[in-house]
């Protein structure tokens, strides 16, 4: 006699399991789900269980496919002419490249490459401590996701709000925090950054373009209502013509206007995109909480010096009473340590986090930060830096 078929076990057999790379929900379905029942991420964020990335290499392979023709997720992202992002765009969008000939983009990478670390091998064995506080927020590492925007426009690989959510969630899961950017298709009424802030209960920092004061105040009010941790403006976004072309003009800001915004909000205020010591001093005097030394990843003016060149000059000018961040060309924990030694309290990662989020959502972002943490710890250990808060110029090589 044949055995009775156990229909229950046949019916409940998992045929396909899908994974939402934004919120980690596991979904059983034959076909790719169109929408995540939990976070509403669309099918672009669904990964089949057989394709789950376990390494950052796999995440980057996934990003490479999705960003075809825009970014090849090269092992070394340096803005050189052999990279598909870096060519004169003749009025076309610059994708992930730099402005003009890419001199500023490359200067960021080159300035870091020129800094060398003193290798120290004697002394007690230790476990490096990367924990720190940024604007009163406890972080596991002084590395934040930088403010970026516009990923939706790259091959339609990702929805913009899901991009923002991936960055914020992935950063939080890695023990840090994400900034979010602003661009021409964001408005005060329909704003992917703020929608993602809401979904992440305000655990993030929106950086707005230097829009009119009135618009900025409306955006800042929204950020406050969402309990965001800080707000800021990328002052170096003042030259954007695409914003104006879409009816959202941006402006150079006077110190009086910055002061007005600092006084308007109860949140800490970040002045992003400072490259001159005198302007850093003026921003500090106007009461901002953070001076963010940045040339926008070389995307707003060609032929600036690299950020690692300017950072020590700004730290020297301002002393130790203000928080300073740096971003531009930071690709490894070794780069992070160099920036900290040159005067940064924390650093931001731009392009690498875009690739991680496009590749595999918040999972990709977390894997990227895990990789950075690993190499940062290695760099600290091999330079004798026990505690991230104590890192200083002594670990940088100087020829006498
Ligand atoms: C595609 C792209 C979009 C960006 N959008 C913004 C933005 O909206 N706001 C902002 O403050 N910075 C923006 N940035 C600059 C980054 O915040 C950061 O300063 C820069 O990417 C750091 O350099 P890195 O990419 O070499 O790490 C953008 C950068 C890229 C590559």
Note down, in words, how this protein is organized.
It contains twelve helices and 13 strands. Helix content is 35%, strand content 12%. The chain is globular. Helix 11 crosses helix 12 (351-383). The chain has an eight-stranded parallel beta sheet. Strands 2-1-3 form a three-stranded antiparallel beta sheet, with no helix packed on it. A two-stranded antiparallel sheet has the order 4-5. It folds into two domains: 1-52, Rubrerythrin, domain 2; 114-395, Aldolase class I (TIM Barrel). The chain is an alpha/beta fold. Helix 11 links the parallel strand 12 (323-327) and strand 13. Bound molecules: flavin mononucleotide. Flavin mononucleotide (FMN) is lined by residues 96, 108, 146-150, 181-183, 207, 234, 272, 294, 296-297, 299, 327-330, 348-351, 354. The site of flavin mononucleotide has 26 residues, from strand 13 and helix 12.
List keywords for this structure.
alpha/beta, TIM Barrel, 2 domains, 8-stranded parallel β-sheet, 3-stranded antiparallel β-sheet
